[in-house]
Amino acid sequence: MLLGISAWTGRPVVEPVGRPEQARDWAYPARVEARLDQPLNRGLWLVKWLLLIPHLVVLVVLWAMFLVLTTAAAVAIVITGHYPRAIFDFNVGVLRWTWRVAYYGYYALGTDRYPPFTMEPAGYPATFEVAYPERVPRALVFLAWPLASPHLVLLVILVGVPLAFGATPLVLGGLVSALTLVAGALLLARGRYPRDLFDLIVGLDRWAFRVVVYLALMTDEYPPLRLDSGGSEPVAVRPRPVRGRRRTPA
Fold first, then answer.
1. Within-domain flag for 186
2. Per the record, where are the segments of Basic residues compositional bias (predicted)?
3. Three-class SS of residue 31?
4. Percent helix / strand / coil, the chain, rounded to 5
5. Considering the domain boundaries, does residue 14 fall inside one?
6. What is the pLDDT of residues 122-168, one digit of tens each?
7. Which one of 8, 12, 97, 148 has the fewest CB atoms closer than 10 angstroms to its CB?
């Protein structure tokens, strides 16, 4: 019901006042995109859990650093109103690495190309970026988690408890993993990944990563209660100014 109420099929209308210039035309200050690689190997997804072990070991360490550095960034925001750029770039890299692993693994199964061991952009079918905010409101440090509580309820449903609360994609859980396993079964039986199912899964993953970005204080823009499905982010359109009605002379 919650997903049905929040689903949106049109382009999001945003007022980009206060946004970083880089994100003026983005649907949200974080961009989560993916390209479905076709054809996919029918049975490779059955052993990807084994192939991903080296990545998961690294991600455990990176996420521990992510949590510590995000706490340090919160202190810096309270004192200065700015998110330290070095910490911001590191956290973006961790989330980028996580998205690649999730996309290759059991939160999408959208490619057979093995994820690179890097936090930098690398031409991978799954891409992630966040626009750096010039300033972050100090109050966000104290209000982000309470304000995001409706999203957290949804995230537990969508991706399970571990990923919803900042853990790496170590444990399967939630609606996204269930849909991904359905996609894997269809791939095994029919040799193709249904495009509509892919669009839905990536849209749900996008929702989850937007909320994580907000909770990590990397943007003060509240995540939209809207399902932006598909591999590409929608292009935002600016609202048209409302013109006053002309008065007809008596």
1. yes
2. 240-250
3. strand
4. 50, 5, 45
5. no
6. 899 999 999 999 899 999 999 999 998 888 888 777 777 555 444 44
7. 8
